[in-house]
Amino acid sequence: MEDKTAKLREEAYGPIMEHMRVKHPDLIDTAYEFFWEEEYPEDFLSGLALELAFMNFEDWFVCDYLVEGKESVIDLYLRETGRNETTDLRAMKESVINFYEVRSITGNVVELGDFIMGEDLKIESSPMEGMKPGDVFAARFVKMDGPPVMGACLYPFPADMKTAVLSAMNGLFIRYKKNKNPDGGPGQFLKDEAYSFNMIWMSNIYKGVEGAGAEEGGAF
User: Fold this and answer.
1) Are 34 and 193 in contact (CB under 8 A)?
2) In terms of DSSP H, where are the helices of 42-193?
3) Which residue among 41, 75, 83, 199 is the one 20 to 30 A from 104 at the CA level?
4) What DSSP designation does 84 have?
């Protein structure tokens, strides 16, 4: 079975990051400092966790970061290379990082429960190797033709952290509605505040700070 996730990363993410490294290294540095809040993950991560950290940054940078708060990295890439927007790139721009639970695995199909948007997914199992029912994680799924394809980020959480993660995201959403966009729904919140899962992932798992952004009261 073709690994569509690997293909998407190689054919879409790869050329964009290569172009940006050559043409806009300073822009990457600026985004990197923002994403990590002026810290350096290599100072406190190693092994697989550090690999995920770099992968997660690149996914966010390509799909969610806005150049000077206006133009997406994908649009900048297209404008500078003279290429046309493909279905894949348009879907990447529209995608969000969301929070999921593995509900079931049947053959090559994985059923995922969506905690925030309520849009449960069925995907091919190839990018989910090693996961089992009950596992929770944040990731991006790009909706093209056929089953959604997993993007280039993954934030694995211990299953017993599900409530804590939802509480933190709930608190961040309430603050987003209050301070930034009173009319914004969960989907717009996930797009505008796409770095939130990285903050929670780092704070709760690797720095021992519980409840990043947590706030009482239902929102989702």
Assistant:
1) no
2) 47-63, 73-81, 87-94, 162-179, 186-192
3) 199
4) P
- Give the C-alpha separation, 211 to 220, whole Å: 17
d(CA 138, CA 128): 12
For 60-75, the pLDDT digits (tens) are: 999 999 999 899 999 9
How many Å apart are CA 157 and CA 135, to the nearest integer?
Answer: 8
Residues 220, 207: Cα–Cα separation, whole Å: 27
Mean pLDDT (whole number) for 173-177:
96
Query: What is the residue extent of each domain of the chain?
Result: 4-93, 97-158, 161-206
Tens digit of each residue's pLDDT (9 = 90 or more) over 33-62: 999 987 888 888 889 889 999 999 999 999
CA distances for 53 relative to 12, 58, 71, 152, angstroms: 19, 9, 24, 11
Residue 147 has which token pair?
A: 């089953």
Give the angle 56-61-62 at the CA atoms, nearest 5°. 105
Cα 140 from Cα 26, distance rounded (Å): 26
Query: Rounded distance, CA 36 to CA 198, Å?
Result: 8
Task: Please name the fold of domain 97-158.
Answer: OB fold (Dihydrolipoamide Acetyltransferase, E2P) (2.40.50)
Q: Are 27 and 20 in contact (CB under 8 A)?
A: yes
**Which pTM value belongs to this model?**
0.90
